[in-house]
Design goal:
CATH superfamily: SMc04008-like
Number of helices: 6
Radius of gyration: 15 Å
Order of helices and strands: HHHHHH
Oligomer: single chain
Distance between the termini: 34 Å
Low-confidence stretches: none
Number of domains: 1
Structural class: mainly alpha
């Protein structure tokens, strides 16, 4: 592996995070429940991790603020525009696969 400085690692990780967030903002067709069922995390998880990091660094951030950073708009707006009702199959898969800390 290439020797990277800590600053390079941070900058590259931040760039990858920004690209992931932009990708998720563009893929509004991908439902959070599908992400949870396939990958074990979703946009809400990502916003929770962001909030945790901010709070640990002494930069208080509430859930709504963190979600707006990830969703690119208030969460309720995103839900009303893009979130579909989960099917029984999606719900069953989620219950069988959901991470224990959710």
């Amino acid at each position: 592996m290439t020797d990277l400085t800590e600053n390079q690692k941070r900058d590259f990780e931040a760039a990858a995070f920004r690209r992931l967030v932009q990708h998720l903002r563009e893929r509004t067709d991908v439902q959070n429940i599908d992400m949870m069922n396939l990958a074990g995390f979703c946009r809400n998880c990502l916003s929770n991790w962001y909030q945790d990091a901010a709070n640990e660094a002494g930069a208080p951030l509430d859930k709504a603020q963190a979600r707006e950073i990830v969703y690119g708009m208030p969460y309720d707006d995103w839900r009303s525009k893009y979130q579909a009702e989960a099917t029984p199959a999606q719900q069953a898969s989620f219950e069988g696969n959901r991470p224990k800390d959710h």
